[in-house]
Amino acid sequence: MPTCAWRVGDTLGPMNRRSPKEGLHPRNRFRDGYDFEALVACRPALARYVRPNAHGTTSIDFADREAVKALNQALLGHAYQLHDWDIQPGALCPPIPGRSEHLHHLADLLASGADDGLVPRGPVPRGPDVAVLDIGTGASCIYPLIGAREYGWRFVGTEVDAAACVWATGLVAAHPEVSGRIEIRQQPSAQQCFEGVVGGGESFALSMCNPPFHASAEEAAEGNRRKRENLFGKRSRGGGAGRVNPGDRNFGGQAGELWCPGGELGFVQRMITQSAERPALCGWFTTLVSKGAHLPPLSRALRAVEAADVRVLKMAHGQKQSRILAWTFRGRQGA
Ligand code: SAH
Q: Which CATH number does the domain housing residue 289 bear?
């Protein structure tokens, strides 16, 4: 894929020392760290936020919403030629390397075949014949945008929040290079994953999801406050438990993005039950599971619905561990 065609005369010179990102997938475009020189060349507006950090490398202030947005815009522009991405005011600002990582692991799952290990057996399937259902695509529409550029896949992105749907639809329209391959559909019920957004005759190679993980708005606000304090120290404090500080939303996302009845566990349990009602809808049903402790009850739920194959794809970036739970009914009688 070509990179940005033009460069500005000003470079960051010795400031452009990279900080490689440990453990990322071999195909992850960001595993060698950020090339700030190239990023600024692609998105000059980023320049004002770039500065050396305490580790002797170049970075931005991740507590500054505008800086994070400018970095995201530069990364999407430089790596994927998506030059018109923007974030809905107050919505979640997704880390681009992590979202790409998720897609690369799913690509390997598709390449692995149904019944062997996780080592890709064949080439990663590419192109619009690979249909992907992204449940809860968010205002950022981040998985479809990256996936359509990286692998040429076709996406249906579903979203329960009406304003997020409008924003995501606008982003798709703003990128003609992918607009023919991404469709946004509004999910009328937060309790449903498939019903209401997919037709009877439709099928997908896989479904994917980054589920809301808190069980209440209060828990979401408290989790968000703790996350910011861990990342940026007490200076980021502001909203108490139960109150979403407007500044905190920059990183945590709007309340609806972050919570649902039953939290992550409830959401994925509903997804499992509903997948069993339409076992042939997706070759693989998948979802991110942020808490390792949720895996045992989810495995039990998958046994109860007699999934034919269940896999846990581990993702590690730096200190952070996360995992994708994947299951299929292919091969099961009647599926
Ligand atoms: N995919 C984006 C957003 C994840 S946040 C990202 O990774 O950054 C989870 C999203 O799911 C929110 O936008 C929320 O509004 C949406 N959502 C919650 N329940 C849903 C449901 N049942 N169907 C579709 N979207 C849902």
A: 3.40.50.150
